[in-house]
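ugh finaly. both done.
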Amino acid sequence: MKAIVLTCDRYRAVTEHMILQYEKLWPDHPFVFRVPYQKLHGAPGNRAEYVQTPAEIRATVLQILAHLDDEEWIYWCPDDKYPIELVVDKIVDLVSDIVRSADMSGLLFCRCKALLRRPGATLHPQPKINSFGDVYLERKGWHQIWIHQFLRVKVLRFLFSQMPERIASAKLMDTLKDQVPKLPEHRLFVTRENFAVFGESTHKGTINRNCYESIKRTKIELPKWFRKPNDKYVTLGKLEGQSITTQSR
C-alpha cells in the first residue's frame, strides 16, 4: 500500500523519524512511503520512494497522487505526526476490512479531539459494525484529516484540488479545509475505540520536545534549525487496557 507523505526538504529529519517509528512499531507494515522532495533526494529502498514535486503544498500532494486510481486505498501520513503506540493486530484487521468495503472512503483509528469531545457535532449517530465486530462511526466533515489514516485517493485528490494554489503556511490548511465541503459520497469513518497514539512533530516551524527527545534516541542527525526544541509535548489519542506496541521512553 502506498503511504502518501506530506513534507518538504527542510523537514527531512522529521520524515525519516516518522518512517523509522513505523519500522519499529510495525516491522512488517505494508507501506511504501512516497516522499516528496524538491532538491534533497533520498536513498530509495523497498519501503520508500522519492518523488520530485514543486514546493507548493497543493501541487506537492497532487503530483504525488498523479497516475493513482481514484479508488485505490492509500495511507495518508503527513510527517507532522508520528506513531508512538499502535495496536498492530487490530490495525491489520482494519486494513483487511476496508479493502472489502465498497461504501467506505476513509478510516481513522485514532479517535481524539473533537471526534471524542463533541460527537454530536462531528459524527453521524448510526454506527457501522465491521466484519470483526468493531464499531465505526461516520465523520460529518474533515475533522482530524491531518492524522494518519487510510483514505481512497479520490478523497485526498478532491480536498487538495479545492485548496488555493499557494498556501503561505501549512497551519492555514486547518482553516482552508473547513471551506471545502466534503462530498457525501466520500464517506469517512473513525473507530469508536482507539487503536493508536500519535505525537505531533512540530509547531510553527519549531520541533516539539516530544519529537526532539524521540529523535535523539535514534541515529538521525538533526539540522541546526531543529536542535533547540520548544517546550511542547503533544500527543493525540489514548489507549486503555489494550495490548500495544510502543516505543521505549
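ok and the 2nd:
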Amino acid sequence: MVKIGQFNFLKIFRKTARGTFLEAGNLGQVFLPVAQTPSHCEVGDKIQVFLYRDSHDEVVATTKKPRIEIGGTTCLKVLSVSRVGAFLDWGLPKDLLAPFGEQSKKMEVGEFHIVHAYEDNTGRLCASSKLNKFIKAETSGLKAGDSVNLIVGDQTDLGYKMIVNQAYWGLLHHDDIFREIKYGQKLKGFIKKLRADKRIDITLKQPGVSGDKSLASKILAKIESGNGFSAINDKSPPELIYQEFGVSKKVFKAELGALYKQRKILIGKDGIRFANTDKH
C-alpha cells in the first residue's frame, strides 16, 4: 500500500516538460518535478520517491531524503512558531509541524528537539516530542552485547537517557561516559545489561573486548614509556583516559586500584609511577 511519509516505488504514468506524474494507488497520481526525475527513466518504469503533503495540502513526490520518516525518531531544529505549533527543519520545502498539543515542553525558534514522526487523524505527517507515547520502557528481542543505534536524550541524576533503535528507552550511566556527548547526538553502542525489570543499560564500548589483564599491561607500558611516570591518573578527564586506554574512567580507576594493591604502582596527585626500581 502506498503511504505518505515514507519511500515508495511508483510507476511513471506520464512525463511532461514540468515533471513526471506517478501512479500512487489509493492516492491517485502524484507529481515529481522535472529536476528530480532521473533522466534515464521512461513511462512504465518504477522509481523510488518519498511522499508528503506540500503547502497546498497536495500529495507530492520527491527523490530527496528527509531527516525523518513516519515512525522514525530524530533531533530536529525549530525554524518558526505559529498559532498552530512549531515548524521543524526536516530537509524538505514544507517544514514539519509539531502541534502545541504534541510538545512535551514549549518549543522556541532555534532550539533542537527530539521528535517522533506520526500521521495525524487527517492524514498529515506531524512531529511529537511526547516520546513516551512512542518509545517503550521495556524491551524485547535484545540481549546483552547486541550492537544498537542510539540517540542521546535528557540527562538525569544517573546518566543519560538513550533511545535504543528508535524503539526503547535505555540508560547510559555516568560511569560509562568516557567522552563528551550531547542531546540529540546519534551514536553506536551496545547493550551492557538487560535488567530484571526489562530496562536496558547501555555502554559505548563493546563488552569483553579488552580484559583487565590487557588494561594493566597498557598502564604499566605507559609508565615505562615515560621513564617510570605517567601524568594520566584517576583525576584525569574521562575522554583522555578513553583516548589513551580505550576504557571508561570507572574501569581505569578500578585497575589502578588493583595495581596499587599489588604494590606495582604509586598513585600521586601529579600522576602514577612504579612503586619500586624493579618496576613490574
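summary for the 2nd one i guess: The two ends are 68 Å apart (CA to CA).
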